[in-house]
Amino acid sequence: MTEALLEIGDSYWSIPVSEYLKKCSINLDPQKYQANGLTSKEADNRLLKYGKNLLGSKTKTNLISLLASQFKSPIIIIFIFTSILSYFLGQIEDALIIIIIVVVSGLLDSGRKREPLMRLRSCWHLCN
Known about the structure:
This protein is mainly alpha-helical. Helix content is 65%, strand content 3%. It folds into two domains: 2-50, no CATH class; 63-127. β1 (33-34) and β2 form a beta hairpin. The protein is elongated and about 80 Å long.
């Protein structure tokens, strides 16, 4: 099959479907397939067998979990560790600056990621 695809090259779109299927050694049962796709009977069988083709939602992401996920990054953990170390070494101002930068960065990044998630969720509701 790979050799047939290499032989066809980039012009696969310019040959008839039947010829393309022959070159790829794909045999289609005419009882199940039409020129424009599956027959209604085969589509109903597949719907019963596989179910609807819906997008699934794993978990709902809320703002708190989104914010918490910002602090799982190795570089952020290093920054937090550095600020704790600075605090214990007596450099309280440096520790506070590092923590403020980490928190502000996490808040900004969470806000930046929240909007696309909300748009994706609204699109998902429209599709389902």
